[in-house]
Amino acid sequence: MLTKDQISKNLRKIKQEIEEAKNQSGRKEDNIILVAVSKLQPAEYIKWAIEDGHRDFGENYVQEALKKMEDISEPDVNFHFIGRCQTNKAKYIAGNFSMVHSVDSLKFAKELDKRCEKKDYYQDILIEVNVAKEETKGGVLEQDLEKFTEALLKECSRLKIKGLMCMPPYMEDPEKVRPYFAKLRKLKEDLEQKLKISLPHLSMGMSSDFKQAILEGATIVRIGTKIFGERQYKK
Ligand SMILES: *Cc1c(COP(=O)(O)O)cnc(C)c1O
Prior knowledge:
The chain contains nine helices and eight strands.
């Protein structure tokens, strides 16, 4: 377990490093959202971070996330859904998260759209791209991205596409991950041009590689371990 003080220190340090990377990337004016990934960590950690002024949290497992949310009364806290999108979970996701980062199937998207319609909710989403074509990971393949995006635009009026997300392979040397971040940025720019849409967000970069992600244009980084330490629970 970490103490409240340790988490507070970690948050401050990460925010400082984000600032530095942002300045280095020449995007001084941009606001980079730090999603503190609290999956498999005690609800207490989230409360401490909120008391410390933090507002964005990432969760991978719907039931776990909803349970943690029950105890949080602050109105302006944002939960981001960053886990695998399973169609049977869409009804629990709809309306409960400020952004869903990992949309990668039309079946799920349609179900989420339907559930949002019922709740009269417009859901911000990102499309996850499988940038390294890894079989074990979710995400739309590069060659399917344009068609997939068009289908979402056409068939899911409740889903507001805000950008792209990726989870590249872990590498000892984070510089080796950089080409994947550059690729996601390029895919985003191509989509914007081809489909004449605006995609403000690139959700990329985790504890080990968020600086490289920011240098390649990340607007949202998702950081768990470097804030909350090793995860407490197993899945
Ligand atoms: C767990 C997780 C993270 C955070 O990973 P850390 O290495 O602990 O920073 C970020 N994004 C996704 C999608 C995750 O599942």
